[in-house]
Specification:
The structure holds two protein chains of two kinds. Chain A contains no helices and eleven strands. By secondary structure, chain A is mostly beta strands. Chain B is mainly beta. Chain B is built from no helices and twelve strands. The chains are: A mainly beta, B mainly beta. Chains A and B meet through strand 4, strand 5, strand 9 and strand 10 of A and strand 5, strand 6, strand 10 and strand 11 of B.
Chain lengths: ~120, ~120
Amino acid sequence: NAGVMQNPRHLVRRRGQEARLRCSPMKGHSHVYWYRQLPEEGLKFMVYLQKENIIDESGMPKERFSAEFPKEGPSILRIQQVVRGDSAAYFCASSPQGKLSNQPQHFGDGTRLSIL
Amino acid sequence: AQSVSQHNHHVILSEAASLELGCNYSYGGTVNLFWYVQYPGQHLQLLLKYFSGDPLVKGIKGFEAEFIKSKFSFNLRKPSVQWSDTAEYFCAVNKGGGGADGLTFGKGTHLIIQP
């Protein structure tokens, strides 16, 4: 059990539908990161959030993708009007509260998104 | 922006062989360096990390890595591999010096250990 909980583990959508991926960070962690892994590629940073704030979204596509981390509940990565190219594994990571970047990130099991 | 290069995409070794996986990064400032491992069907796990201090860091399961600043390298080593080390290995970096930051990953090295 990684401690970072992602669901669903697998998600199948048809082109044009919406995909919602959820991530609950480890207990006591208030920083959440989303990454995307395409086949045969390393993980690519998408967005970094703290509670109710997007800190860095430099890796997020400008259209169709959004992320939130509300005061209560999990972080959500939302992909609208999905296309085949969105098929990938999406990983969430969390780290403890703190100002130092040397807090290691702990990863969830990922959500495998398949677009038909 | 940072980038990370892992030289070998696939490595095949026999049990008890020594291992060295290369990792180079490009960034002019202070960095934190990480190696993560992903066993088949599992999540990424932290093997070891370098923040500052002794450039030779020891991690779990007998792995170690050496930070050579002049070469912008952070190679992973293990003197004697086991079949259970078969996995995907990722080198990653983020900016040091304070302020939490997303990680930049290499493309990974798929390591296969033959019994």
